[in-house]
Design goal:
By secondary structure, the chain is mostly helical. The protein has two domains: about 60 residues, no CATH class; about 80 residues, Methane Monooxygenase Hydroxylase, Chain G, domain 1, CATH 1.20.58. The protein contains eight helices and no strands. Helix 1 packs antiparallel against helix 2 and helix 1 packs parallel to helix 3. The longest helix is centred in the last third of the chain and has 21 residues. It is globular and about 55 Å long. The C terminus is likely disordered.
Length: about 170
Amino acid sequence: MFELKRLSRDGVERALEKVERYRLLNEPWQAESICRDVLAIDPANQRALTALLLAITDQFRAEGASRATAATALLEHLADEYARCYYAGIICERRGTAQLGRRVPGAGEIAYDWLRRAMDWYAKAERVRPAGNDDALLRWNTCVRVIQRHPDVRPVEPDETPLSLE
């Protein structure tokens, strides 16, 4: 019905600046759209790929885990191991924090599981991080603080009374 218009290569930098602005305005769908426009003319643009991943994860609270597959698919396009580990952690962390807002039975245990997965990814990122880049440590600490702040965010407790077959 309608055809998308293509950005000019000269407009990429300005478009990416708008992505940040729309994310700050809590309009991640707009940021996602702009990232897709940039990637249509420059598929390997790392800044657009990471911004797209973040814009998608910004939508987890509203749209749930259905967007997680789209975010995870972007990981393989990131240029280095650090970025892949770090952003895998971001995806898990945001799935966990989105789960906290659901207020359904078991949400705390599910959130805990996602936060622990995030922490595992951040630990991997920490091992291969560039010198002076403490981002993975900061995210690890955030996960720890979320777990400490919310008493319902805890691991699944094993059943304390074993089933009897008698």
